[in-house]
Prior knowledge:
Elements: E1 9-12, E2 17-20, E3 26-30, E4 38-40, E5 51-56, E6 59-66, E7 73-79, E8 82-89, E9 92-93, E10 106-107, E11 110-129, H1 132-135, E12 140-144, E13 147-152, E14 155-161, E15 166-168, E16 171-179, E17 183-190, H2 202-220, H3 230-242, E18 244-245, E19 250-251, E20 274-275, H4 276-288, H5 292-305, E21 316-317, E22 327-329, E23 341-343, H6 355-369, H7 376-379, H8 382-395, H9 415-432, H10 440-460, E24 462-463, E25 468-469, H11 481-486, H12 496-509, E26 510-511, E27 514-515, E28 530-531, H13 532-544, H14 548-559, E29 571-572, E30 579-580, H15 586-606, H16 613-617
Antiparallel strand pairs: 1-2, 2-3, 3-4, 5-11, 6-7, 7-8, 8-11, 9-10, 11-16, 11-17, 12-13, 13-14, 14-17, 15-16, 18-19, 20-21, 22-23, 24-25, 26-27, 28-29, 29-30
Amino acid sequence: MSKPISDYAIVGDTHANALIARDGSVDWLCWPRHDSPALFLRLLDDAKGGACSLYLDGVQGTDRRYLPDTNVLETTFSTAGGRARLTDLMPVNPPDPEPDEGPDGEGESRLIRLLTCDEGRVSGRFEVRPTFDYARRPCTAREQAGTVLFEAGDQRLRASASCPFTVRGEAADCTFALEAGQTLYLILTHGEDGQAAEIENIEGARHCLDRTVAYWQRWSGRCTYRGPYREAVLRSALCLKLLTYAPSGAIVAAATAGLPEAVPGNRNYDYRFTWMRDASFTVTAFVMLGYVREASEFLRFLREADGSFGRDTRLLYGIAGEPPPEEALHHLSGWRGVGPVLIGNAAAHQDQHDIYGELLRALCGFLEAVRYDPPEKVNDRLPEVLDNLTARALACRDAPDHGIWELRTERRQQTHTKAMIWVALDNAARIGRNIAGVPPEKIAAWEAAAAEVRADYLARAWNPRKRAYVGTYETDDLDAAVLRVVLFGAIDADNPRMHATLAAIERELGAGDLLYRYRMPDGLEGREATFTPCAFWRVSCLALAGRTGQAKATFERLIARGNDVGLFAEEIDAASGEQRGNTPQGFTHMALINSAIRLQACIERFGLSEETAEQAAE
């Protein structure tokens, strides 16, 4: 039986990530980078998927946390004989000095596990069983100089520990018994050169722990948010940092592939790529928290991935090269038997015209944060970038598209897309007024076009019968994405029609504090769960409308829905409260950050209103 998605915490080194369950099992790991084929994937198949498992004798209870202000995970097990503490980390080594551009930390493609007996006596065993290339390649395991080397062609994993291994077929285990004060280490090292692990004793492992803790605490210390939700905001920021790929500056949408959005259903996508929309929104979140360097790194990635200066900007990118085509892994059963597990992503070939607004909003926010004195790669030919992106936005202002939700149906005239075209033009004009090389008449033309686009969607998206701005022109379909454009100023929050739209969305798409994205046919099987970012967008709309008391109460209930270490997947099942979809998902965590910041600003502006939803509707 698959473990609940909320069971998983994440550790990483800004190159790759591992997902670790409450029982101490590493059930997902892709090495050497986020989009590499998984070698541990019990997450998606209990039987075929490998793992690095911990089996403690007589476990009675489990508790866990991250070490303060870090991505180092600590799990405490109470057993019949004592208490044990498991510390998991992927080492990060900060360069000295830190470069102006490029990675601010070097990974080692290594996972370190330290098990300490804090009280009494604990016993059990670790088992290491990799299943390389999504369990498509058999491996050999052999002892070598006190370690175990697992090989599958050119793919290798080495396991070393302070207790001896026993090889059993394609797996190896080590049995231990620890007294109070004793510590065992287990180290997994990825590599294709077959060299022995460099860490050979507990002192070396502890040195890596200390250095990694110092890296994360120094990074966390740069967070400028000082509001009442700092713990949730900082955990979200730390999660987003783990979703970055330091060598290129890319940002993946989530750490996993194949976790279902609908049970049953076929919405089992691979999120280990860079979506322009998600990454741009992440840039905005980073900037709002003072992490300007991470924002700059993503813009560096974009310049290097798209050498056309905006002429050929795409929806989706691989983190270091072209993304692979979508492929179904039919040999895997999927989480709770929901298949097929998909790798690659067919959305790469869709038309989603909102991306120009996403990118220009992120660029504008970044430039304002650095007072229009950006790094050379961001500043290079900036007027040309504005020309190209606005030209593309204008060229598709009347064109249908697949939209933010990547519907696998016919293209539609979608309100969110049209509003984001306004965002593109509006932000291009803002940038143009603050840099050299953009003629005033061009700025005026963008502003005039923006006014036309805005007037058009405000008229055509309004549905008198529904008393709401609908998601698609000339339909009755409500869409929670309409809430999102309010956050960009594309619809005024105090517009009476927007008040009515929020009420309609709450009524027809709401499930308590949660929201479904839409109810319309989307060309896919199954009914998906509620989409967590939409719930945070609703909080922001409530706050911007002056309903700060309701917004605050809703926000606090929402952040309590994260798992025990503050992480969110993409969706939440309204009936059971269980997490659904890929995890942890960047879009959810960036929405949480933006909502927290906006809520605080609105409370400072409006005070703490106690207006109820019924009073607002009147």
